[in-house]
Amino acid sequence: MRSSTPNGLPEPVAAMRRFNRASVLFDEADAVHQLARERLFERLQLLKFEPSIVIDLGAATGKASVDLAAEFPKAQTFAIDRSLAMLAKAKTRRGDDGLFTVLAGCAENLPFSNKTVDLIFANLLLPWCVPDLFFAEAARVLREDGLLSFSTVGPDTLIEVRRAWASVDDAIHVHGFVDMHDIGDLALRAGLTEPVMDVDRIKVTYKDVGSFVADVRACGAGNVAAGRRATFTSRGRWAAFGDALESMRRDGRFVLTVELIFGQVWGRSRIEDRSKGTAEATYPLAKMRRQLGHD
Q1: Per-residue pLDDT tens for 148-175?
Q2: Residue burial 14-35, b: 16+ Cβ < 10 Å; e: rest
Q3: Based on C-alpha coordinates, what's the Rg of the chain?
Q4: Fewer CB within 10 Å: N-end or C-end of the chain?
Q5: Is 12-154+177-203+259-268 in CATH node 3.40.50.150?
Q6: Every domain of the chain and the residues it spans
Q7: Running DSSP on this structure, what letter comes out for residue 256?
């Protein structure tokens, strides 16, 4: 059966399986997640904000849930993730006092009523979602003065890996990532308001290809893109990829780019709820496919 997920975007079921397996080693390989989480949290702390209902969406092992519960002690904090294995880890982190509530769920179908949530904190979750559905669901559950604070990665992320694979074959080996400006457009089309977006570019160094691959697998970020090659990568193609990546080595190591995008958008204000008859805004699928580079 052919996937209905646009080529280049992760297939949800395959992604969940990867994260279930990655739960064992995730905390040992989440350096980029940790950096993004810290920078996202810094941006959140600049706001004078006293939420009552907080969601750590895509909570993984619950590190951000702990921070959010401490930052907003009067709020009820929920750690939500699709991966039950990740949530099992999060339960061990919440302590006997139950700092937060653990719920299984996905970003495209949140277990909350319309306009009931004050804050959604989503660290590096967007790359694993269908973007328009992610923002539409956030717009549905957020109160009018509610906030979606999120991080994601842009198209320049792992550009070196894309180039290395492009020298080997034309298959999809790296997920497609949406540009910062189009992310803002998607949020507005979903009914969210006042988007504030900014970007940081970081460099991650590795001593060899094996350590990079080990990190990717440990944090669950392996290739689960729709439209990827269905067969195993041959030893010859894998060796050719390794050689291409090794050719980029400088001073004994090679450097990979991560384009971190941070966004804050607010709940819909003067826009009627869709259930009351408002016409839905859409994001052209053809444009998304062109942007992901798989049209």
Answers
A1: 999 999 989 888 888 888 888 877 667 7
A2: bbbebbbbbbeebbebbebbeb
A3: 19
A4: N
A5: yes
A6: 12-154+177-203+259-268
A7: E
